[in-house]
Amino acid sequence: MKTLIASLMIFCAGLSSAFAQSALDKFFSEYSRDERFTVVEIKPRLFSLMAEVANDDQDDFDSVITNLTGLKVLAADNVTNGLTMFKKAGAKLEKNRYEELLYVHKPNKTEVRFYIDEDKSGKIKELVLLSASPTNFVMLSITGNLDLDKISKLSGSADIPGMEDLDKVGGKKKKE
């Protein structure tokens, strides 16, 4: 009987974690099928493949790539409510989980926010970028064992919406 109860508890715990989804994941899912949006989602396996083919002279690239577990981008460049979407996405962030690193605000023109999520040891495990204007919106989430300085150095070479703003956070906060 104890074995049956223990098995049921383990099954239920696994089932609940399988259905658990962060607020940002839900926001991403909500808009990922909307035709106005470009969606990019890179899975961990692609990062490991990229690390395998990296050149020896790309030490920064290799060290960043091997520590990434995911990248998601949700971007729209022709919406009528970019700033409203920015506020909606920002409201979804769990304030006790994410720490704001940077905020840029030009009234009725542009808003940019960077957030991080750290584990208990102070390692950065997620970087979130929200960026918007009246007609544009970008949400970017990078997960893994992150080094902001290395990511910001590589951000200029990536042709992914929102990555160009990552150079703003390099050196802002780094715990190792």
Automatic annotation (TrEMBL):
InterPro entries: DUF4252 (IPR025348). It comes from the Bacteria. Keywords: Plasmid, Signal. Residues 1-22 form the signal peptide. This is DUF4252 domain-containing protein.
